[in-house]
Amino acid sequence: MTATFDLWHKHMTKFFRNGEATFGMLLQPVLWVVLFGVGMQAMLEAGGGGLLPQSSSGGGVSGAGYIGFMLPGIITLSALAGAVAGGATLLDERLRGIVKEYLVAPIPRYSILLANALSTVTKGLFQALVIVLIGLAFGAHLAPDPASWGLALLFAALYTLGIAGLALAVAAVVSSTLGYHGLIALDLPLLFASDAFYPLDVLPSWMGWIARLNPTTYVIDTLRRLMYGVSYVGQMPGWLSALVLVGFAALGMALATLAFRAEIRARGGAV
Fold first, then answer.
1. Which residues, 6+ apart, have CB-to-CB distance to 174 below 8 Å?
2. Which of 230, 152, 208, 257 has its CA nearest to residue 160?
3. Taking the model in full, what pTM does it have?
4. How far apart (Å, rounded) are the C-alpha atoms in residues 232 and 45?
5. Cα–chain-centroid distance for residue 52?
6. Confidence tier at 210 by pLDDT (50, 70, 90)
């Protein structure tokens, strides 16, 4: 675990010292909140609120306006971008020969992969907290139970771990940054193929099924329920969201482990 912590500390120090990269990672979700969220909320309020998702008790979203409804999607977008960036870090270290130096060091091989995954999750949670604070500044209200906030961040971490696993699996096998760019393009499709900006019950049936197969939907619904106290008709059950997110995190890390082991074998090293 010492090696894992040392490598995690290295990645986090590099992240916070690189102000340009940190600013760039936060800029997109902030613009989503400020430009898209505020504008949509103004439009819906001008229409009398009738276009807002209906709560199970009637009368629109329970617990928040549109800003509170969409913020979990923006938090998830930050997690997606951060996870993809975490995979890019591993790819950069592979191409520059740094991973080869790790492999000859007297440390467990798996600590290299685990440190990348944990630093990615840490960055994602940091970004999530920044977006939460921005949301508060624009009128979103957190649920009254602080314990639910911690549970929400736990599920956000599971989702980030799953995405990080997929990103690390790709980063372990591709041979160039161009080959990795296809994964970057998945950010917005995953977001729009979920209930980030609109409730499931208003989607066409074919799009609703796609959203139900997308783990992004489950983390967004979990964040809405636990972080903002938002409930509406068609929301995913909490137990199902928890099951999907745990399974997704396990799948992502399993794929990353298999890909990383294959890369080590290709280099002629011991796994």
1. 91, 180
2. 152
3. 0.85
4. 18
5. 25
6. very high
